[in-house]
Please model this.
Amino acid sequence: MRKSKTRFWLFLSPALAAFGLIVLIPTLMGFWYAFTDWNGISETAKFVGVRNFVAIFGDQSFLHAFGFTALFALCAVILVNVVGFALALLVTQKFPGATALRGVFFMPNLIGGLLLGFTWQFIFTSIFTAIGKVAGWKFMEGWLSTPQTGFGGLLILTVWQLSGYMMIIYIAQLQQIQDSVKEAARIDGAKGGSMLFHITLPLMMPAFTIGLFMTISNSFKMFDQNLALTAGGPYRSTEMLALNIYNSAFAENSLGIAQAKAITFLIVVAAVGITQLMLTKRREVEM
Amino acid sequence: MKSAEAVFVKTGMQRKNSIQKMSFILVGIVLGALFLFPILILILNSFKNQKGIFLNVLGFPDAKTFTPDNYPKAFESLNYMLSFMNSLVITAISTVLILMVSAMAAWVLVRYKTKISSAIFIMFAASMLVPFQCVMLPLVSMGSALHMINRVGLVIMYIGFGTSMSIIMFHGFIKNIPEELEEAATIDGCNSVQLFFIILVPMLKTIMITVTILNIMWIWNDFLLPSLIINKPGWQTLPLKTYLFFGQFSKRWDLASAGLMLCIVPIVIFYLFCQKYIVKGVTDGAIK
Model:
């Protein structure tokens, strides 16, 4: 059947117009601004070549934020997914209260990053200190006042927030592994550990592909939690990439530099994400 | 007695199962308590005065330290009703418009199998990789040139940012709806608009719920975009007002904990009522 071209463009145009204006044009402008001395105040931005990119690789705060974010993402990805998978294994067992537990584990995910950051700021600064005093544990005191505890704090918050989300994804996949496959393996003599490592885990690979991708992307792009929990302190030592870009734009007014950082950020996020997708996709097995 | 005992003696297998079940319950209780702890301790402290928090942050409030006053105070400082309504109106209008424009776009992107159609779809999908920080500065500068630094501008921006994910979700769903029904309706004289609203939309109910939930979740909690776009005191959304509230009352955890609870409670209520749809939405959103 012949379909009119008018209909195609008519129905597509509202979405395309909004997307073009809000995402596409600013992204393209952003690439241009990264090569200029744009400061947001003067009308014109002069082309300066790759000067901004050279500058940011000499910028200690940026390099630090880069390393901090990469290390954070690595730890968060491992912890969030291990905990998320363990929670999924637990709540898919048959015992009273399993369904209610799912609800509890997932709940932190719905609360916005800002609220979580402030809530945990209270936990780390007041509650941890109090527990440390009562129990005589020195390591519980002074959280968020050193780079290490700031890092640990962000990590704990992220695991608390995201592992329930991963749990939901892993439950969906666990339920798709047919009982017949497990039964066959059991007859062939697979027990607890070997069942987990040789049957369940390989069949979980499609879900791990998604879970890893989402945690990598989420931890690289983290902003609200960072701002609310530590605001990058002490002395910018826990500043992650997104916050570093924000600060160079709004605290230092170097918009061209900020934009060059943002473009670098885009390239890194895309490269890491795509590499991971390719690596894990290869390990997926058909059921 | 002997026969009763025999009834209660379990076989080894059964005993092993019940021990296993008990240990699951035990682990579940410990982990559940660990997950709920931050919220519970926040509730506890929201009912203490400043002295109560200073002297005994871990315990229950007693006669001297108990106070319900933090809530009305935080309610007032947050300008709660106004901020809540601002968030609600912006989230609701943006979500409805995103649903409409995305469903429309996804429909023609599925039904027209041309090169340009698939190129546009790939463009939407690829844009999901772009971090907000890449777009942020040019968007704000363009937005102020176009007089979009206001609530209407914010809604338009949410549509721009929200369409990609929504189109991908609708696309995946519409792909599995056979086209025959639309062809038959065309022969019966339906035009494009009728086809879409009368034939297609009623079939999209389940995916509509999923996309609605996913959009509400991020727009309601979004902080950075409104912080750049909303600059008038009366227009602030709840996350924005929370941030300013914290700047004002940092270290005043009596008021702050009550304020946080005021912001968390509506989310938990929403969750309790829509848990089934939220879990489905998250699962579908991830798998697509």
